Amino acid sequence: MIYIGLTGWGDHDSLYEGTPSSEKLGTYAGHFPIVELDSSFYAVQPERTMAKWASETPESFSFIVKAYQCMTGHQSGFGPFEDKEAMFEAFIDSLQPLGPKLSMVLCQFPPWFDCRKENVQWVRYVKEKLHGYPVALEFRNQSWFSKSMKERTLSFMEQEGWIHSICDEPQAGNGSIPTVLHPTHSEKTLVRLHGRNVYGWNDTKDGKWREVRYLYRYNEAELDEWRQHVLELSKQCKDIYVIFNNNSGGDAADNAKQLIQSLGITYEGLAPRQLDLFD
């Protein structure tokens, strides 16, 4: 099965017209069967909040939960937690209300997290702490997929049971990775489409990177390229999850719907859609 969705549900204005913020998730779930939950990256979410989000979505809906930033080294220390054990325990507790709606946890490591022994050991530790959960691994440093390390990295992911988070992103130096179309898990593969804004990828001036990094709209030729990639991946892996993360200019929802249409997919079990005035 091929599941297609977006990063978050709050920023996609084309899906909402006069929809209160409190109702956006339910509306979103009328368009897409999955969502990447990125608020969990910035703070471990309270269980009551996760339970609320689960209750607002249909039975067949699922969440890709992004790992808390201190778990993946984006921030030093353990945030508000006493130690790493308490941090992981709180994160795992936060997952419980999702139940079967949890499709996977996404562990995305930062651009400075390069391929060396101590980092491999931390990746192993994270996987151990999340034992029993489907977990996807995404790197942002090219060293993991250098000519000498690519096959070793993929073999490591297979042996450790990681879901490969395959990326489409600008080739903009060491802080970006190539597209490696290689599933490492027989059940699930994640594809994250970040856009190809090579000029904005490393633009961190004035702290406005969020406004420019993912400012990109895939054209028809690029979407057709990914249509073919996704179909090929689906021959090698049971379920393919595709997330559009090109959110900076509001292009993700439109691009996702284009890909759904080009693949001829009709999702069953979406939330009821509110009819327009003249429907």
From TrEMBL:
Pfam families: DUF72. PANTHER family: UNCHARACTERIZED PROTEIN YECE (PTHR30348), UPF0759 PROTEIN YUNF (PTHR30348:SF13). This is Uncharacterized protein YecE (DUF72 family). It comes from Alkalicoccobacillus murimartini.
